[in-house]
Design goal:
The structure is a single chain. The protein is mainly alpha-helical and about 180 residues long. It has a three-stranded antiparallel β-sheet with strand order 2-1-3. Helices cover about 60% and strands about 5% of the residues. α4 crosses α7 and α5 crosses α7. The chain has a single domain, classed as Porin chaperone SurA, peptide-binding domain (Triger factor/SurA peptide-binding fold, Orthogonal Bundle), CATH 1.10.4030.10. The N terminus is likely disordered. The chain is built from eight helices and three strands.
């Protein structure tokens, strides 16, 4: 008997012994779809948790009244605009440095690993999230061309709002209403 056959039989016996699930379980919920990017409730929770410890240019430029869902929508739009253009792609070393800086914000390694676990993440997924955040920041920085003369946060926020507005209008954004469980 092969390993695949053994695992199939084991899974069938386990299911038979435990029985089918009595009720469906909601694991996550889709909030909005931007183009091909899906934004879930857990994405919002993770963004809020990361924002507590990791400052990004996109967060700095968002108007204080802009909620986390809109910031995630903007991030999806910007990632789609950036595509795979090399100039916006951080190097693995840049991402690793950002992840390591984030790790060092925790007094103990155990707390950092608890954070990852609480958000259903491992270091590879965290690396991917920081990669994405760096792409967004690079795209904004390069396309808004903030110079050293503009230091007023309100002026930066206004310029960002004016710049992102037509991109929001052009993007295919579909909000998904909550559905009652089956």
């Amino acid at each position: 008997m092969g390993v695949h056959t053994f695992l199939t039989i084991l899974a069938a016996l386990t299911w038979a012994r435990a029985g089918p699930p009595t009720e469906p379980v909601i694991v996550d919920r889709v909030i909005v779809v931007v183009g091909d990017d899906v934004i879930t409730a857990s994405d919002i929770d993770l963004t809020l948790a990361l924002d507590e410890r990791d400052q990004t240019l996109a967060r700095e430029l968002a108007h204080p009244k802009v909620n986390s869902i809109q910031r995630l929508i903007d991030g999806a739009i910007i990632r789609q605009l950036a595509g795979n253009v090399d100039v916006y792609q951080p190097t693995p070393g840049q991402v690793r440095a950002r992840v390591e800086a984030f790790q060092h914000l925790w007094p103990e390694s155990k707390q950092y690993h608890h954070f990852l676990s609480a958000h259903g993440m491992d270091e590879a997924r965290l690396f991917a999230h920081f990669f994405s955040r760096l792409v967004i920041d690079a795209y904004i920085h390069r396309n808004l061309s903030f110079n050293e003369e503009i230091i007023d946060p309100a002026e930066k926020q206004t310029r960002y709002a004016e710049w992102i507005a037509p991109h929001r209008k052009a993007a295919h954004i579909r909000h998904v209403a909550p559905q009652p469980p089956p």
